[in-house]
């Protein structure tokens, strides 16, 4: 069996050809969406507002609010919101007038700074009377011309009258007092959630008792004022400014030893006297109207015996009552109740670790 001889390749081989696909696929050209046909319905300014959902580059979301179901849901939500707002306003207005409450928060930054300085340094301030301005339209509740003329005056808001009581400073001072007392307890290693709750409860009870005592005193002494309750709430909160200063300065001077010692009592005495004088002068226009201004709107003269009783009541409230409440608040950071809470929490931690 003979093997065929190997034939060498020719000198010039034929050219190579790449395979050609049998099915040619065409790539579609991507075009930008057409501009909207009409500018009457902008559909919230969407650049694709004029498109429809089928056969285009992107689905059209501009006509969502034109859907009947979406419109019905929007109307139901709007009706429910309006009904809830009216219900809240009707129930709140039974106890507190919202326009009158807004008056006490109409403050400015210069007023807040000047008011804080007045609460802490009231020694040389004059005058203490509040400013009034005549109103252009008589209130609808006035039943007679004399009553309309008498009630046709209003007190200026706090931002325009330094002697006007506000609720911005008392509310901020109340919250600051709770946070500051909790912070000081944490710096002493006594912080627990119960401490914050105890401090807030004590401050709230003090304010509530003070307001109830004031309302009882004004009822017994036949003292009437249109905005008396809100004024008393505002004035009862200014004591927290002095308490905060007492806590901060005493903690700094005593180097974390609390508000005791000569430094703490010195600062407490000053802030107490300043707050007492501030209340004594500020509440005078409510409890002791000036007999020389009997013709002034909103002022009524009182008998001499009634005036003496009101003077005694104002003195007791401004000095004795404020001393007791400020002492309780300034000693809250180192009270035995907080120490007992901290000791109980530490015992729980130790018991859990040992078990």
| Major sheet description | 2 strands, antiparallel
Helix-and-strand structural type: mainly alpha
Mean pLDDT, to the nearest integer, reads: 74
What is the subunit organization of this protein?
single chain
Tally of individual helices: 12
Q: How many beta-strand elements?
A: 2
| Radius of gyration, whole Å | 38 Å
Strand proportion, as a percent range, falls in under 5%
The unreliable regions are 39-61, 138-150, 291-299
Q: Helix and strand string, N-terminal first?
A: HHHEHEHHHHHHHH
**Tell me, what's the shape?**
extended
Main sheet: strand order: 1-2
What is the end-to-end distance?
99 Å
The residue fraction in helices comes out at 40-55%
Q: Which helices and strands appear, and what pairs or packs with what?
A:
Blueprint: H1 68-92, H2 98-104, H3 109-120, E1 132-134, H4 145-150, E2 153-155, H5 168-187, H6 193-220, H7 228-236, H8 239-253, H9 261-282, H10 284-287, H11 304-330, H12 336-354
Antiparallel strand pairs: 1-2
Structure report:
This protein has about 350 residues and is mainly alpha-helical. The chain is about 55% helix and about 0% strand. Strands 1-2 form a two-stranded antiparallel sheet. Helix 6 packs antiparallel against helix 11, helix 8 runs antiparallel to helix 9 and helix 8 packs parallel to helix 11. The chain is extended, with a radius of gyration of 38 Å.
């Amino acid at each position: 069996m003979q093997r065929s001889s190997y034939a060498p390749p020719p000198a010039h081989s034929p050219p190579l050809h790449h395979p050609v696909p049998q099915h040619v696929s065409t790539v579609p050209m991507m075009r930008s969406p057409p501009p909207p046909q009409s500018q009457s319905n902008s559909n919230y300014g969407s650049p694709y507002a004029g498109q429809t959902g089928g056969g285009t580059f992107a689905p059209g979301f501009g006509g969502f609010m034109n859907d009947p179901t979406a419109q019905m849901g929007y109307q139901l939500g709007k009706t429910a919101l309006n009904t809830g707002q009216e219900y809240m306003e009707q129930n709140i207005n039974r106890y507190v007038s919202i326009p009158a409450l807004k008056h006490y928060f109409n403050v400015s930054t210069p007023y807040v700074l000047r008011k804080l300085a007045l609460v802490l340094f009231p020694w040389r301030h004059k005058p203490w009377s509040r400013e009034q301005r005549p109103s252009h339209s008589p209130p609808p509740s006035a039943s007679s011309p004399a009553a309309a003329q008498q009630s046709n005056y209003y007190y200026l808001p706090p931002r325009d009258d330094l002697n006007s009581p506000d609720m911005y400073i008392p509310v901020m001072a109340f919250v600051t007092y709770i946070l500051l007392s909790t912070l000081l307890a944490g710096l002493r290693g006594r912080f627990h959630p119960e401490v914050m709750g105890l401090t807030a409860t004590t401050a709230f009870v003090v304010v509530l008792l003070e307001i109830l005592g004031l309302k009882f005193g004004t009822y017994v002494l036949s003292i009437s004022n249109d905005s008396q309750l809100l004024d008393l709430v505002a004035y009862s909160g200014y004591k927290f400014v002095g308490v905060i200063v007492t806590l901060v300065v005493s903690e700094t001077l005593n180097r974390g030893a609390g508000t005791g010692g000569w430094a703490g009592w010195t600062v407490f005495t000053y802030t107490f006297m300043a707050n007492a004088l501030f209340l004594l002068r500020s509440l005078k226009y409510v409890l002791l109207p000036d007999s020389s201004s009997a013709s002034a709107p909103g002022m009524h003269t009182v008998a001499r015996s009634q005036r003496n009783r009101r003077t005694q009541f104002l003195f007791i409230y401004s000095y004795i009552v404020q001393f007791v409440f400020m002492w309780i608040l300034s000693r809250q950071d180192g009270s035995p109740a907080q120490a007992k809470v901290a000791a109980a929490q530490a015992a729980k931690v130790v018991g859990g670790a040992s078990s």
